[in-house]
């Protein structure tokens, strides 16, 4: 990885999130270096998705800071921003349950992914002339790059709802990529897939990481794949970080084994 | 007489700003003019020369159909080297065989998939120096000696061109029409592929003689979607396109071919029977899935179409009333259907490589698609016999093209002589001597001429069966009839030296699956579906129809549905999807034994290799059914 690994892309500092009496995240601090593939793992309810929701602005943590460093190394306090502003800064995400417009085509869904970058008012858009036309063409070109990258050509004009689940998952990833993000938050991209689909999804995540220079943060329960592709793993349990390190370190960490299995056991953890 | 790169220069001079190639990329058809085409061939050719490519060297090319494939081929030939196309879905071992025989110095490989295969076998290919790829995706971080990107080679060549602007044309002038232009892999139904040496003259003669029969012009469209290693695709995309100046279109992805065909609306098409059979199945399934009203119209229109076609092929004039009905049928059903299939503008829809069943023929002519049979082989640079328009007979392959002599030897073997007959097999004088005797190409196909000069191809000479009652019969004939059913994927018929005829059938998973869904039959895998009782009944009813149509001795008595699809990766089919009968007979000897026994089932063992390399053996019980006579 060519980039300076000491450069921090995203950092959470002492983040605490409560829902009434329930503490979803308790004093969580973590850093994502530029160009690293970070995985968040942990049992159900550990707070993984809550972290992604805090970063993307869906939840407001009661305490702590979330800082994103853009490509110009300017720091932005994400916990004060609305979700669409966070997206425009370069933080994209996918959802655990596919959140696409099912009656719209793949192309339309991906174009919507670029929505935050679209300028021009009702008049310019309606007339579709001059600069506005060039902008649209540029957006389409970027969307086509994503289509090419994910091999979605055969489905360009198909309604998303009619596509196979594995393809919908790809479209979901494509919509996030169309945003042209620096940081990509992936919430269970492998869930519900068969072995073949998992393999190709893992391949895509690696390619996004290596060739597009995107910094992915991945949540998933498929330990084999996660341990295989990630540079660093952060383990959560009951809203706290209980371990972090390289995959092989985490795999043998007694606290992790304990959290997953409740007893001492080899860490070939659930899938 | 010119050479292929010579023709390219001529086209570039004559119609430089017209479109030579078109590739769909980013959802838009991107055009390459003849001038740009020639410029890129020039750049790539000089670039390879810079890398050390010399005259007579071999350049292997492997990948999907893209402009770079043709550019690489013509660039190699312009440098005086030979191009060698390899089927893109070939496994590493198959690639190794042809590249080893050819001693290729350069391989142009499309993408990561192909580069990986080449790297896997590289140690065994001492003569291989350069691996040039044109889709860099996933190759980031690859380090292998001699691995270089296509644009970098072109850049080298452009630099060389600016230093010596004459070098390219001079190199082309040095090639003689009698020089070998390419090595064409034979399909290899019986053995490993041999490499047929074809000269520029062979290729160009073949194309120009075909064009004496069927005119092709600049402005015509052709869609190149079959492997460019196949001679039929070479004949159109390279030799015919360069001599006639028509446009070659490349689909976006393999999965988008159908949609891309529809967008282009080609004037010519060449496909093996499989593609036409699939189209028929698709239309049949569509018709079955539609509303009753539409199906009624469809049935009526196709009926009218068939009747008209029959009258025309009998050489009679179509009666007024029928012609009127035909026009209405066209308006309400046939034209929209042709449009849907991308066949609206097609003038010549060739089928070659194997025999097309008469039912498929009849169907397309009923639709108003001019399907014509071709007959040829790699060794004649494409084809030597073709149907003439308005003189189409379902059971024949037509008459020889001008300049090609075709006769049938006493043994029943079809022999061909003429300017397109190849120069021999590369480094295989023994096979050459066997095949090429006194200028006559011995095809290994059995056939005969009808009184009106039409050639009939029966089957491979070795496959023709002697039935129990002493009559000769072609298994392919029955197989084609079986395959007309949309639910039959592949069929292999046995019966030579046996008391009766039997068949192993692989169902068409998609179509049989849809049928099962409609009939509320639950299934999981191919194996599971293939062994369902109703599926057996479905196939059996079709066999009974076929049986009613053939002589008593050739009727299928017992059959089984195979637990898997026949596949080229398992060496059961050739890369052009022809059945390798002898291999199948060996591999499924137990099944065939059981077909000639009297048990109602047979057990097969399959070895499965998991992704991590572990293997396991799975047993399946296959039912055998007896067909009432």
Description:
The complex is a heterodimer of chains A (271) and B (629). In chain A, helix 3 packs parallel to helix 6 (165-178). Chain A is built from ten helices and ten strands. Chain A has two domains: 1-90 and 181-271, 3-Layer(aba) Sandwich (Rossmann fold); 94-180, 3-Layer(aba) Sandwich (Rossmann fold). Chain A has helices at residues 48-55, 83-89, 106-113, 122-127, 131-149, 165-178, 195-211, 223-229, 247-251, 254-261; strands spanning 8-19, 22-33, 38-41, 63-69, 75-77, 91-93, 183-187, 215-219, 232-237, 240-245. In chain A, strands 6-7-8-3-9-10 form a six-stranded mixed sheet, with helices on both faces. In chain A, strand 4 and strand 5 form a beta hairpin. Helices cover 37% and strands 23% of the residues of chain A. Chain A is an alpha/beta fold and 271 residues long. Residues 1-5 of chain A have low confidence and may be disordered. Chain B is of the alpha/beta class and 629 residues long. Chain B folds into three domains: 4-267, Rossmann fold (3-Layer(aba) Sandwich); 273-344 and 346-460, Rossmann fold (3-Layer(aba) Sandwich), CATH 3.40.50.12780; 465-626, GMP Synthetase, Chain A, domain 3. Chain B contains 21 helices and 29 strands. Chain B has an eight-stranded mixed sheet with strand order 7-6-5-3-4-8-9-19, with helices on both faces. A five-stranded mixed sheet of chain B has the order 12-13-14-15-16. In chain B, strands 17, 18, 20, 21 and 22 form a five-stranded antiparallel sheet that branches. In chain B, helix 9 links the parallel strand 10 (221-223) and strand 11 (247-250). In chain B, helix 1 runs antiparallel to helix 2 (34-51) and helix 2 packs across helix 6 (150-163). The longest helix of chain B is centred in the middle third of the chain and has 22 residues, at 292-313. The model of chain B has no long low-confidence stretch (mean pLDDT 92). The A-B interface holds A 141, 144-145, 147-149, 151, 153-154, 156, 195, 199, 203, 207, 210-211 and B 25-27, 137-138, 140-141, 252-253, 255-256, 259, 611.
């Amino acid at each position: 990885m060519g980039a300076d690994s000491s450069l921090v892309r995203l950092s959470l500092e002492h983040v605490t999130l409560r829902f009434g009496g329930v503490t979803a995240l308790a004093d969580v601090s973590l850093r994502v270096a530029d160009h690293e593939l970070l995985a968040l793992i942990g049992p159900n309810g550990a707070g993984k998705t809550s972290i992604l929701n805090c970063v993307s602005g869906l939840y407001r943590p009661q305490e702590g800071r979330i800082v994103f460093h853009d490509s110009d190394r300017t720091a932005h306090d994400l916990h004060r921003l609305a979700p669409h502003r966070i997206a425009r800064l370069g933080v994209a995400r996918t959802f655990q349950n596919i959140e696409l417009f099912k009656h719209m085509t793949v192309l339309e869904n991906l174009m919507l992914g670029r929505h935050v970058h679209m300028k021009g008012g009702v008049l310019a858009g309606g007339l579709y002339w001059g600069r506005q036309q060039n902008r649209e063409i540029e957006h389409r070109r970027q969307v086509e790059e994503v289509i090419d990258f994910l091999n979605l050509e055969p489905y360009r004009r198909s309604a998303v709802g009619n596509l196979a689940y594995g393809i919908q998952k790809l479209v979901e990833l494509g919509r996030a990529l169309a945003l042209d993000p620096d940081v990509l938050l992936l919430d269970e991209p492998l869930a519900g897939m068969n072995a073949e689909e998992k393999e190709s999804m893992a391949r895509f995540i690696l390619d996004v990481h290596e060739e597009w220079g995107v910094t992915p943060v991945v949540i998933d329960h498929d330990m084999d794949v996660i341990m295989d592709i990630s540079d660093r793993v952060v383990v959560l349990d009951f809203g706290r970080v209980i371990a972090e390190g390289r995959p092989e370190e985490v795999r043998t960490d007694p606290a992790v084994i304990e959290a997953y299995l409740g007893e001492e056991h080899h860490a070939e953890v659930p899938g | 007489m010119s050479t292929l790169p010579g023709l390219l220069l001529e086209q570039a001079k004559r119609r430089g700003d017209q479109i030579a190639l078109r590739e769909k990329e980013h959802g838009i058809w991107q055009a390459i003019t003849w001038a740009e085409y020639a410029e890129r061939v020039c750049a790539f050719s000089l670039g390879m020369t810079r890398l050390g490519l010399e005259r007579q060297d071999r350049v292997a090319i492997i990948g999907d159909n893209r402009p770079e494939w043709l550019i690489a081929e013509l660039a190699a030939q312009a440098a005086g080297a030979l191009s060698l196309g390899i089927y893109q879905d070939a496994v590493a071992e198959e690639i190794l065989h042809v590249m080893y025989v050819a001693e290729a110095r350069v391989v142009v490989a499309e993408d990561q998939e192909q580069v990986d295969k080449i790297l896997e076998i590289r140690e065994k290919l001492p003569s291989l120096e350069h691996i040039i790829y044109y889709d860099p995706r996933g190759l980031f971080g690859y380090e292998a000696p001699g691995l270089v990107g296509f644009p970098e080679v072109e850049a080298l060549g452009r630099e060389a061109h600016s230093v010596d602007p004459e070098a390219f044309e001079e190199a082309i002038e040095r090639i003689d029409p009698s020089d070998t232009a390419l090595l064409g892999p034979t399909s290899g139904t019986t053995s490993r592929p041999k490499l047929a040496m074809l000269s520029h003259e062979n290729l160009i003669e073949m194309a120009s003689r075909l064009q004496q029969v069927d005119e092709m012009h600049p402005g015509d469209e052709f869609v190149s979607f079959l492997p460019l290693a196949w001679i039929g695709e070479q004949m159109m995309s390279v030799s015919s396109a360069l001599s006639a100046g028509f446009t070659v279109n490349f689909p976006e992805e393999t999965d988008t071919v159908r949609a891309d065909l529809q967008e282009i609306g080609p004037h010519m098409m060449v496909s093996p029977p499989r593609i036409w059979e699939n189209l028929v199945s698709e239309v049949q399934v569509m018709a079955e899935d539609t509303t009753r009203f539409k199906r009624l119209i469809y049935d009526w229109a196709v009926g009218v179409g068939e009747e008209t076609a029959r009258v025309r092929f009998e050489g009679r004039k179509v009666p007024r009333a029928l012609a009127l009905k035909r026009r209405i049928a066209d308006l309400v059903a046939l034209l929209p259907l042709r449009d849907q299939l991308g066949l609206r503008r097609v003038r010549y829809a060739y089928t070659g490589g194997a025999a097309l069943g008469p039912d498929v023929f009849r169907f397309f002519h009923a639709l108003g698609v001019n399907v014509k049979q071709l007959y040829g082989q790699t060794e004649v640079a494409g084809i030597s016999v073709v149907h003439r328009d308005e003189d189409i007979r379902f059971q024949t392959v037509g008459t020889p093209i001008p300049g090609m002599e075709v006769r049938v030897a006493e043994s029943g073997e079809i022999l061909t002589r003429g300017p397109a007959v190849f120069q021999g097999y590369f480094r295989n004088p023994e096979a050459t001597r066997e095949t090429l005797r006194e200028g006559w190409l011995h095809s290994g196909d059995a056939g005969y001429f009808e009184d009106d000069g039409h050639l009939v191809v029966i089957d491979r000479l070795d496959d023709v069966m002697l039935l129990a009652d002493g009559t000769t019969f072609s298994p392919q004939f029955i197989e084609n009839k079986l395959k007309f059913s949309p639910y039959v994927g592949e069929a292999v018929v046995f019966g030579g030296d046996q008391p009766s005829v039997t068949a192993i059938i692989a169902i068409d998973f998609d179509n049989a699956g849809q049928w099962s869904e409609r009939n509320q039959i639950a299934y999981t895998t191919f194996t599971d579906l293939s062994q369902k009782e109703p599926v057996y009944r479905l196939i059996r009813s079709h066999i009974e129809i076929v049986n009613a149509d053939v002589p008593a001795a050739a009727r299928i008595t017992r059959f089984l549905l195979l637990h898997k699809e026949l596949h080229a990766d398992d060496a059961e089919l050739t890369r052009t999807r022809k059945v390798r009968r002898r291999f199948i007979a060996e591999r499924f000897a137990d099944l065939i034994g059981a077909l000639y026994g009297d048990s109602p089932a047979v057990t097969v063992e399959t070895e499965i290799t998991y992704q991590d390399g572990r293997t396991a053996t799975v047993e399946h019980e296959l039912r055998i059914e007896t067909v009432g006579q």
